[in-house]
Design goal:
Rossmann fold, 44% helix, globular, 264 residues, single chain
Length: 264
């Protein structure tokens, strides 16, 4: 198992939800952290708690959707840390809107943050990992990267894109000592539904019933860290909703009857 003590771990979307829980989980392993998100105040709250467990935890506020500035951001992290051992691509935004009502601009915004910002950051970090001959790339995708369901059209598309990109990237890096781990969470008890983007570009501001009954976020984070330590290639994290992945694979006719009825 990989020892995470004093490894430099950069987590995006670290101010809340899975990213915040991952920060605590990595801190308890003794990892050195770089935490990024847009909200500096929330990041500093997470940092304060992390410093109870680890000696180093830096805060680096960034809006990842502005990809033109990411090269400078990566340079800043390298100056502060010297190397990036693990990049956890966690930042992203969900969706709660019907395709017929959603302007193409909203679809583009979701793809820009959930896909293009992720691969832009990954490419920039990968340059340094290849120079040092080591590193670990992690992407927090979603169960919707395996199948789509109502009110998630662009979100599902972005996660399908991540799935394809990082599977291909893993194959390219097989001889470079840089493993790639794809995490596919199901329903996790976070505020992802409240922050989801609607057709008018505003936040959904409601907690889905399924989300409220989802896996506790600290348990989710523990499973993700365990998968990273074991260099797992792909891991589904969640509860009974994960059965849909297997229903789709083995019983497609049943899947196509069930999926239109899935509720938030």
């Amino acid at each position: 198992m990989k020892n995470l003590k004093e490894k430099n771990v950069w987590i995006t979307g670290a101010s809340s939800g899975i990213g915040e829980a991952l920060a605590f989980a990595f801190a308890k392993e003794g990892a050195f952290l770089v935490l990024s998100a847009r909200n500096k105040d929330k990041l500093e709250e997470v940092q304060k708690r992390c410093l109870e467990y680890t000696a180093k935890c830096r805060v680096l506020p960034v809006d990842l959707s502005h990809t033109e500035g990411l090269e400078k951001v990566v340079g800043s992290v390298m100056e502060q840390t010297g190397r990036i051992d693990i990049l956890v691509n966690n930042a992203g935004r969900s969706q709660r809107s019907w395709a017929k009502e959603t302007p193409i601009e909203i679809d583009r915004d979701i793809m820009e943050l959930n896909f293009f910002s992720v691969i832009t950051l990954t490419k920039l970090v990968l340059i340094h990992m290849l120079k040092t001959g080591s590193g670990h790339l992690v992407v927090i995708s979603s169960i919707t990267g395996k199948f789509g369901f109502p009110m998630r059209t662009a979100y599902s598309a972005s996660k399908h894109a991540l799935q394809g990109y990082f599977e291909a990237l893993r194959a390219e890096l097989v001889n470079d000592n840089i493993p790639v781990t794809i995490i596919l969470p199901g329903r996790i008890n976070t505020n992802i539904s409240k922050n989801a983007l609607t057709a008018d570009g505003q936040s959904y501001n409601r907690m889905d019933e399924g989300q409220a009954r989802g896996m506790p976020v600290d348990k989710c984070a523990a499973l993700i860290v365990k998968a990273i330590k074991k260099n797992k290639k792909e891991v589904l994290v969640g509860q009974k909703e994960l059965l849909m992945v297997y229903i789709r694979r083995f019983f497609p006719a049943l899947f196509y009857k069930i999926v239109p009825k899935i509720k938030n």
